[in-house]
């Protein structure tokens, strides 16, 4: 119901002074109601306005000067991309798709590990049936079965390793005594290798599940810290997954969040006119388990209300913090105590005022840290760019020096060649070792450069003779 500031400014500047008599055509009834409430301008909505809007959109390039159909298509494409980006939310730290996938994988892993552990029990139970009663826990049973192997080889030396696995000396001693008097059948080495291999796979799956749970916890603390602080990471992730996204969960009312996950029971109750369910996925929270039977419905309704508030805070806050989630959790604790002891809880207004003060301090601290990190990152980037520039300058200098050296070397080689060429031309054939001189070979025509080198001294002698003759003639003429 609040009109956007840009739209209000546009209407203030576009409308004439007597704007109350003007009737605007608005395609959306809600926007028309908001304009009427804020500015007192009558707005008309309906089929005529929609047709006018469609005509303006169709002939928009012809109505606006300098706008072509190509530029309008580009603008529409950019608007579509920005809208899709806003829907997808390109913020890496606020992506809830990973939470949905990880909680689905976690549930699937729970089912698979349970099924595989039962398979290990039934398989290894032929050889050592008494172990099931001593070690009832699935993952520990697989570890013990892998460690023992053939029960006939179990001895006092293996007692220490058993104690490390089961974390109980009495249990380890009971396993050792049961292995000595077991009624299980003997097992071949090949069957034992298969059982040990399968047990190893189940153990690795359970370890991966622990790592996935830690990843989910860290992701929930980034995306929805208030919701995870209030109801827990796993239940909060299930709520987000069932709703489809954190934004969808924030749009739901508290009554929907309360029975989220119990849709089948709800529709069955509506069809048979029975009692509707009191809780859905939030039943897995610890608060409902701690409440008395007569108070479970009340506390589930109160908890759903607080979950809705927490999800909206996480969805629409710029810097999400767990302060509001902690305060909402305290309120649920106080409500539980009120149902049990009758002690009145604090008012919501007081709690939220405290939460706002604490959250502002936490947000300021987080922004300060982010600015510090950004400054460090810029410094590192600047140093890296300076190092790259210095390396580029050194490479350029080295290349210039190498080219100069190559030029100098080439010039020296040319001079040496020029010096060697006249020496080779003047050199005479040397006699052979036996004293017989070779026949003179026919002289080959010299190249142009060599000819110039050979001809130059003869030309200089002729020019000197001509100069001397001229001087003598001048002296005779003067006499």
TrEMBL record:
It is found in: Nucleus, Nucleolus. Residues 391-479 are annotated as: Disordered. It comes from the Eukaryota. One of its GO terms (biological process) is ribosome biogenesis. Pfam families: Nop. GO terms for molecular function: snoRNA binding. Its main location: nucleus. One of its GO terms (cellular component) is small-subunit processome. The keyword Transmembrane does not apply. Belongs to the NOP5/NOP56 family. This is Nucleolar protein 56. It comes from Picathartes gymnocephalus. The lineage of its organism: Eukaryota, Metazoa, Chordata, Craniata, Vertebrata.
């Amino acid at each position: 119901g609040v009109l956007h500031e840009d739209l209000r400014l546009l209407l203030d500047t576009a409308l004439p002074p007597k704007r109350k008599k003007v009737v605007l055509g608005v395609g959306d009834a809600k926007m028309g109601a908001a304009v009427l409430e804020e500015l007192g301008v009558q707005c008309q909505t309906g089929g005529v306005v929609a047709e006018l809007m469609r005509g303006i959109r169709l002939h928009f390039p012809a109505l606006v000067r300098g706008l072509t159909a190509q530029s309008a298509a580009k603008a529409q494409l950019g608007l579509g991309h920005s809208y899709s980006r806003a829907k997808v939310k390109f913020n890496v730290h606020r992506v809830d798709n990973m939470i949905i996938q990880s909680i689905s994988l976690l549930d699937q892993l729970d089912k698979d590990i349970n099924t595989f552990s039962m398979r290990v029990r039934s398989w290894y139970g032929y050889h050592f049936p008494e172990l099931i009663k001593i070690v009832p826990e699935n993952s520990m049973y697989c570890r013990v079965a892998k460690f023992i192997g053939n029960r006939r080889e179990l001895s006092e030396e293996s007692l220490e390793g058993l104690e490390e696995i089961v974390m109980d000396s009495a249990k380890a001693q009971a396993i050792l005594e049961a292995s000595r008097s077991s009624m299980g059948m003997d097992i071949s080495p090949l069957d034992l290798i298969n059982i040990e291999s399968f047990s190893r796979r189940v153990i690795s799956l359970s370890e991966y599940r622990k790592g996935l749970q830690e990843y989910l916890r860290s992701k929930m603390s980034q995306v929805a810290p208030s919701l995870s602080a209030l109801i827990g990471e796993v239940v909060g992730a299930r709520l987000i997954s069932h709703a489809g996204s954190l934004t969808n969960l924030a749009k739901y009312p508290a009554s929907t969040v309360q029975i989220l996950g119990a849709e089948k029971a709800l529709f069955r109750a509506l069809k048979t006119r029975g009692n509707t369910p009191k809780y859905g996925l939030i039943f897995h929270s610890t608060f409902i388990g701690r409440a008395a039977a007569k108070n479970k419905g009340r506390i589930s309704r109160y908890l759903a209300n607080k979950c809705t508030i927490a999800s909206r805070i996480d969805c629409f806050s710029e810097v999400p913090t767990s302060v509001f989630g902690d305060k909402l959790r305290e309120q649920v604790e106080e409500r539980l105590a009120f149902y049990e002891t009758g002690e009145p809880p604090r008012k919501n207004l007081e709690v939220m005022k405290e939460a706002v003060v604490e959250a502002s301090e936490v947000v300021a601290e987080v922004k300060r840290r982010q600015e510090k990190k950004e400054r460090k990152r810029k410094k590192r980037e600047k140093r890296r760019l300076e190092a790259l520039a210095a390396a580029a300058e050194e490479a350029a200098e080295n290349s210039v020096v190498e080219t100069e050296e190559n030029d100098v070397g080439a010039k020296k080689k040319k001079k040496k060649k020029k010096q060697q060429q006249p020496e080779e031309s003047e050199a005479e054939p040397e006699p052979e070792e036996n004293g017989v001189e070779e026949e003179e070979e026919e002289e080959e025509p010299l190249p142009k450069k060599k000819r110039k080198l050979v001809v130059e001294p003869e030309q200089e002698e002729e020019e000197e003779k001509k100069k001397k003759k001229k001087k003598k003639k001048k002296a005779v003429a003067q006499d």
